[in-house]
Amino acid sequence: MAGEDWIELKFRLADGTDIGPSKYNQSMTVSSLKEKIISQWPKDSENIPKTVNDVKLINAGKILDNNRTLAESRLPVGELPGMVITMHVVLRPPTLDKKSEKLQNDPPMKNRCACTIL
């Protein structure tokens, strides 16, 4: 039964490349799995996630919750014993920090007063 504690996963990125397959313990949390994915992310990729919140894992159409374990997140539909399970990896689009963007792109505001007499 010790072999059932491990699950073989492969991760499909948006550009069609794969990470894995590798075996993971089913007691591992989705958050720690995402950390491993980020560490194995292709370095020549255009978008590289920085935190686990930048990555979403999808298994059988369901987005996996960071606080759950792999055993809790598994959907047995379509899984065959000894087969590799493919999960899809989606990146959150980068969010722009409005304060830093404003400081970089907009000229500094000067306090000016203008009066027009008609």
From TrEMBL:
The keyword Membrane belongs to this UniProt entry's keyword annotation: yes
TM segment ranges: none
Protein's cellular compartments: Cell membrane
Domain Ubiquitin-like residue range list: 7-75
Bilayer topology: Lipid-anchor
Keyword Cell wall biogenesis/degradation tagged: no
Cross-referenced Gene3D superfamilies: Phosphatidylinositol 3-kinase Catalytic Subunit, Chain A, domain 1
Keywords in alphabetical order: Cell membrane, Lipoprotein, Membrane, Methylation, Palmitate, Prenylation
Pfam family, one: Rad60-SLD_2
Function according to Swiss-Prot or TrEMBL: May serve as docking site to facilitate the association of other proteins to the plasma membrane.
Protein's name in the database: Membrane-anchored ubiquitin-fold protein
Native organism: Brassica rapa subsp. trilocularis
Encoding gene, per UniProt annotation: A09p054790.1_BraROA
